[in-house]
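Long-time lurker, finally posting.

We've been working with diguanylate cyclase (Oxalicibacterium solurbis) and I want a structural starting point before designing mutants. I don't trust myself to interpret raw outputs, so I'm hoping someone here can both generate the structure tokens and explain anything notable. Sequence follows.
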Amino acid sequence: MTTTPKSVAVPVATDDADALASDAQLLRIQRIGERLFNVAHCVVTFADASSGFHDGRQAVAHEFCRSLAEVEMLTVVQDASADPLLATHPMVSGEPRIRFHASSPIRDAGKAIVGAVHLVDYRARSFSEIDRRAMADLVGIAERELHVRSLNAIQLDLEKKNKTLRRKSLIDPLIGTWNRGAIMRILGIESVRCEKAGQPLSVIVVDLDFFKKINDTYGHPAGDAVLVKVTSRLRSSIRRQDSVGRYGGEEFLAVLPGASQQEAQAIAERMRAAVASEPELIGEALVNLTVSAGVASSDLFPAAGADELIGHADRALYAAKDAGRNCVKQARPDMQF
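Top reply, 14 upvotes:
Generated this for you. Predicted structure of diguanylate cyclase:
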């Protein structure tokens, strides 16, 4: 009588490269088993039906081994045709006429059975005490590989979780863009990189006009929704290599590596136009949104560090506010504040 092994969850590496490497190692163990015992096939099976390690030539033997009941200890059938349980198996009574089968369980770190190492041959044969010890050694190698595979899966899972946590720590939870710490870090990195490459660096400080009035009139949830919409429009206006982050409550900072003062001015104008392009529906009211922006570029301030560049852009932003808002001002050395 034959039964299908019960399903047991086995931790496996989810990374493709690691999974392929682990599969190759188990196939290597199978080849060692075939040579060590001089049998037609050595097959490693796992109780988890999704896990299987065999090449094309082992497909029939693998199917035979998976059809057998789980064993608690080393089990040897020297002549399957004379065995009361296996004699009627279709792969014993018919093609490919399997005669010899030995199976020993693979256990995880908790001693639970998670698979087995099988030996299959097409002729009856004996199995000595030396063979039994060699089989125990082969199972030990397979168990060690399973342990390594499990550790790899755990490590990959931890790395993914850590990566997610690191990213979350850099993202503003409300608007889904870089937070202040992240955008300042990006500015510092780009400042060094542009200086080494002899490229200009520009920044834009953008402020949403009359945001307090929006909050006071329509409530803070509506104000939050407006910030999300404005962020989307700002991000759609920058280049692939640029970054934009939330610098303050309703204030944004854009970092433009390699952008000259003319390019930065054009990008800032594009941002302003995108925000003002259409009114936003808040409740039942259509509200016109506008931003003011200040631009500063290392073209005009070659000795300025990252913080100084932001200071110049901030002063240009104040000039834009004083000019009536909904406009862009470029910081210049001769600008009076």
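Before you design anything, note these points.
The chain has two domains: 16-162, 180-330.
The domain at 16-162 is CATH 3.30.450.40 (Beta-Lactamase).
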